[in-house]
Amino acid sequence: MLLEVRAIGRKTPRDGRLEVSDTTFRRLSIVPALTARVGDSCAPAVLERLSCTRCAHHEGEAHDHPFVTSELFQSLVPGEHCAVELIGNELVVSRPHPLTPQAAP
User: Fold this and answer.
1) 88: left (phi over 0), alpha (psi -120 to 50) or beta
2) Are strands 35-38 and 90-94 parallel, antiparallel or unpaired?
3) DSSP for 20-58?
């Protein structure tokens, strides 16, 4: 199931955290033993929410951001777009993806 197409954040290669939408986070939260797949590699993945007070659209109000974390995401390239799909208990991240979120149907 295609969950979303998104841009890879600038910090993802450093910390292995791929930010996802709240909807994707909720869908993944019911998956037992979530694993990540990038190319031919597979590794454990965990969901986490991190506190933030720096986003302009929240005007300094405390909130959090949903992430999926896996060592595999350290190989992703910031600015590229990736498809995020759920196949069984695997979160498959395919990159680079030709669609941008604005061009997606």
Assistant:
1) left
2) parallel
3) --HHHHHHHTT-TT-EEEETTEEEE-EEEEEEE---GGG
Distance CA 14, CA 35 (A): 19
List residues bridging with 19 in a β-sheet: 67
Residue 96, preceding bond cis, omega within 30 degrees?
A: yes
Best CATH choice for the domain 2-94 from the list 2.40.330, 1.10.3470, 1.25.40, 1.10.287? 2.40.330
pLDDT of residue 48: 96
Per residue in 36-89, pLDDT (tens digit) is: 999 999 999 999 999 876 775 656 677 889 999 999 999 999 999 999 999 999
